Amino acid sequence: MELHELVQNVVNAISIGSIYALLALGLTLLFSIMDILFFAHGAMYMLGAYATYYFCTKFGWNYFVAIPLVILLIGTFGTLIEKGLFRPIRNDHVAIIFLGIALNWFLESAGFIVFGLRPKPVASAFPGKLQFLGSTISWERAVVVIIGMIAVFSLYFFLMRSRLGLGLRAFAEDPEAAELQGISNDHVCSLGFFIGCGLAALAGLLVAPIFIITPAMGSHAVLISLLVIGLGGLGSIPGALLSAFIIGSIESFGTAYLGANITWGLIFIFVVVFLTIRPTGILGVERE
Amino acid sequence: MLLDIRNLRIKYGQVEVVRGVSIEVEEGSIVTLIGSNGAGKSSILKTLSGLIKPSGGEIRFQGKKINGLRTASIVKSGIAQIPEGGRVFAKLTVAENLRAGAYLRRDSEKVEKDYERVFRYFPVLKQRLGQKAGTLSGGERQMLAFGRALMNGPKLLALDEPSLGLSPMLVGTIFEIIRAINREGVTILLVEQNARMALECADRAYVLQTGEVVKYGPARELLESDDVRKSYLGG
Amino acid sequence: MTKAAACHNGLPSAYLQKLNRQKRAPYGFLGIFFLLSMVPFICRNDYYVHVMIAIFYTVIYTSTYRFILRTGQFHFGAHAFIGIGAYASVLLVTRAGWSFWAAMPAAGIIAAVCALIVGFPILRLKGIYFAIITWGLGDTLRFVYMRFKNPFGGALGIFSIPGPNPITIPGVGVIDFSQKSHYYILALALMMLTLYVLYRLERSRIGLVFGAIREGDQLARAIGINIMNYKVLAFAVCSGLAAMGGSFYAHYTYYISPQDFTVLLTIYLAIYTVVGGQDSYFGAIVGTVVLSLAGEIFAGYSHYQLIMYSTFMIVVLLFLPQGLVSFPRYIARLFVGNSANEVKGKGNESALT
Known about the structure:
The complex is a heterotrimer of chains A (about 290), B (about 240) and C (about 350). Chain A has about 290 residues and is an all-alpha fold. Chain A contains eleven helices and two strands; from the N terminus they run H-H-H-H-E-E-H-H-H-H-H-H-H. Chain A has one domain: ABC transporter involved in vitamin B12 uptake, BtuC, CATH 1.10.3470. In chain A, strands 1-2 form a two-stranded antiparallel ribbon. With about 240 residues, chain B is an alpha/beta fold. Chain B has a single domain, classed as P-loop containing nucleotide triphosphate hydrolases (Rossmann fold, 3-Layer(aba) Sandwich), CATH 3.40.50.300. Chain B contains ten helices and ten strands. A six-stranded mixed sheet of chain B has the order 6-7-8-3-9-10, sandwiched between helices. A four-stranded antiparallel sheet of chain B has the order 2-1-4-5, covered by helices on one side. Chain C has 16 helices and two strands. Chain C has a two-stranded antiparallel ribbon with strand order 1-2.
């Protein structure tokens, strides 16, 4: 393997990993706070990408203006969904999973009808290339990594340093005891959905200029992020980050040397074998 | 009357676990609910904090009806509760646990004062501030649970079995702390299985049996009454 | 002995009633079979017969899917095993020259063995991991079918699959599958067989155990039953039956491709099950029949169809948690007041924990 190939693949791995990390982070956050798996997460990612398309390509706005708007838009949408649909059945975990599934495929089908079957292009905000150790890296990919990292660090500081973050962490650990401190169940769930859906939308924002956008992109994203958080350990944020980059690496190197279909099988077998040996995932803890 | 519970009824599905209980708690007093397991004591406390909705009856706090309110509003109005076993947040540090207790409070000056007060009661917590609560000993955890509840800035502190699982020496300390907190003006509603300690500490007491109040009165009198002795104090 | 006896002694009359019902059940199933088998000879419209056939094999999928769900496993890979059944049977017929009548059960067995192999390691995992892995398995298989043109036909799939070989039934004559009604009888027979097996499973001690599993594994463990083995067994049997449905599908439509066995198939099954009522044996059947018929309105417009289905599912989840089968009770409660049975039930909590 040549050095520049290696660098190229490492950069790919990191940028794919960043996207997966953002996707998985929202999902694992919702799981650790509310103990639910939100299957419509992928639809939020898809909607984020389409919102980017409308803002940037259709309305011609600046990409950096679109970023906060899209996050706010999809995050608010997530909050409304939580209030309207998920709150009434909050305690029935199986019903919640089914509800997420129904919602995901509802939004996907609606996406096909509203947005059409044709993939949509989003012009890159960073058309240039970057020379690094003899390999050419598009600025886009670098930006994905940078924005992804900013998002992860902001989330970290939000959770660890802010009052609301403290509330989320306390609630994740013991909802009833948290409630007795005045940390309201309803507020926490709304906030959790806002952050989770906002992160998915951010992932959509970042892939919009790189990949093609289709309404079906969400379902695949759900599977990927489930594999990521499964491998990382359900509810573990560092685990999700780690496993996002592991899966990103397998995908990047595998696709380069073995082809996409085989790589997919490889990721899957890796996750299955790992979970069979260690059922809690990389950093997961046994939950009752 | 600070707290006035009238004819409270609580149902789990079809089973009525609390059947028309009335309790009065005077400001500044220590009132205890004693009774065996499953008498409905914990359910009453949970209902008080709004974690369970009662099926009937009324709870008034400072003259205002609070049943039906959300837990956060109840906490804000001045009712703190230490759940059974303390239930501190094990993955959070001691400092974070205390800050979680002050989650709803905006009056940072008074919060600071309460912070100091917690350290006055429990100096050991000050040394452990940066430590995860999960690494504390059982006694320290119970102290942290007290500290966290004090950070709520309560007028009424409800305690669910604070002595459970603690060594006899620690139990003594805990009850001293309860008295000390009470002396500073915090009203106490104490649910206990350790009836002797509770009765010695309290002003008034209610004896609960299968969801009903079977006896109540000044704690001293109950401590000397024959059937209470027989049933709850071991002869 | 003592444990089992203690378990039965608790409700002797109810148990005897169950036994009695079980003895009569085969006649009931045969009766329904004969009644339904008249339909294509009364209604000669090929379109309706086709709709019925589609409902029959979908009921096979849905009811087996529901049974796996009932064991407390969040199954998300029904499409994997249906696909295995379809591809295995087709390849056995076209490549190995087997007769359909040997290939179909063989396909079922192959899928059941696959389920056993996969089941033992992954059923140990908690509910949601099971969902992740079965979904992943289905998608991986899809990539395998696409990647290997030989023998799977790649992304285009396999064309001109032969129909079942003609058979002679004494007293009826030759059935050569030249007409839709012949397929109808076969699909009906397969469905009744599946439903009968599931009925026996559900009413058997194993089935009672699954009821217990849903209440929480603790209880089943207390009765002293090895849940794992039963879970794997149910998983294998149901996957095998579903695979036979897949085999029928392949030889009925003459064409399969990887696109037939995507996660969307499992989604449909989940929707049918939930809308019908996941707690009831008849829920899967009711859900499939009602939604399949309703779906015919949008036949050919799959996106609109899916929108309708998912709306249905959301409404049911929010307002009728026990599904359409509880609708009569729901209505009764509206009129009689709250004296009727509580409709709102608790969900299947054990799948997650």
